[in-house]
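Q: My collaborator sent me two sequences in one message, no labels, and asked for predicted structures for both. Can we handle them in order? The first one she listed is below.
A: Yes, handling them in the order given. First sequence, followed by its structure tokens:
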Amino acid sequence: MDVTHLARLNAARLSRVAVVLVTDLETGTHRLVAEGDGFDGAITAAIASVFRSGRSGIVEANGKLFFLNVYLPPPRIVIIGAVHISQLLAQFAALAGFDVRIIDPRTAFATPERFAGIDLRVDWPVDALKKGKLDVHTALVAVAHDPKIDDFPIAEAIRTGCFYVGALGSTKTHTARLERLKAEGFAGAELARINSPIGLNIGAESPAEIAVAILAQVIEALRSRDATSPKGDKR
């Protein structure tokens, strides 16, 4: 790998940008493609696929063989609300390979004893997210069940193109949430990105089952996201 590509790879890693090194196995030439670059040609689908899967490998396009070496930032889940579901979701998500961060200003809930070994920010999301910004490789899970805590990070997740946005709440609660976000200027397609009721519909009842349903929906979104856009999945 030449010095220029290495410098770009290091810069991409620091800025949490996914890149793939495309090597023509016949000529040995290299091309570095960042997610959202607007790549085209017969190899487009293969590049998008490795951005979604994170698996490097050999592909064929136009009768030629290429090796796609993909470099992805660690997927992250930011959980808003240090509730019982969050305790379980944090453990499950960490086992699945996600970086996990929990944000909640309520000191009665956000205690080191309840979230041992987890990146816990006892702060308002508007302040905590200045230090650890959201991005297209982040899932936002809002379970505080308090609009004063949940609304800002949900809006920020839509703005920054988080690959998943989910929020806890009943139909009535979510309808009121949508009205507040509309008042902030969000349109129908943007609001449709919010998964509520949160989690896959598996009939979950207990906090542990709800955590499993949420994590499953996050993984589904990660592996099916639009890897051709710098803003992630817009569905």
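Q: And the one she listed second?
A: Here it is, processed independently of the first:
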Amino acid sequence: MTETPFRRARSEEQRAVRRQAILDTAATMLTEMPVAQLSLNELSRRVGLAKSNVLRYFESREAVLLELLDVELGEWLRELDGELSAAVDAAASPTERGDRLAATLATSLAAHPVLCDLVSAQAAVLERNVSPEIAAEYKRAAMANVGVLVGLVRAHLPELTEDDGIRFATYAVMVTGGVWTHSQPSAAMLAAYEADPELAALRLDFTAVVREALEVLLSGLLARAAR
């Protein structure tokens, strides 16, 4: 795509349209490449603006991706509400409900690889090249999203306290990011796994590991709540 002449947005509505175009383009790119490979130069080229013009709307590549992370997380939470309602039997025991909740979360997250990749890069990459204002704005949005997740979890596991719900939501995000990173092997590691079946046993399955980790976490929180 060739660059188009830049014309300054004359209204907030025009600015919003251009910001959304940048976000939509970044989202499309992340279906083709991991976060680490998405460059501001390529994003600008695909949007059809000079890099300096893209920076009129977002202060950095990381600012674009942090906002996209907020968007992706919000969309996932809206889907998760219906998925949990369909999967978790309110008449089941707390342990059974916890296991179903963990399984549903893991399966749902696996269906959103862009979200998982953004979560895995959040602390080490995306939060490192933004201003205090953008950082604060993102953290406020993240707190709101955590609140939504806590509400969804406690709707199906009312045995958990609000604090336990927050603990679970926080650790679930951390588990997601960590497991995603370790379950996306490089080409060299894939070749090593293929060449040696014993090494292949070390390859992590994202859904299975996240499900088991969240099951254990919920089991511990429910046991503490029961005491």
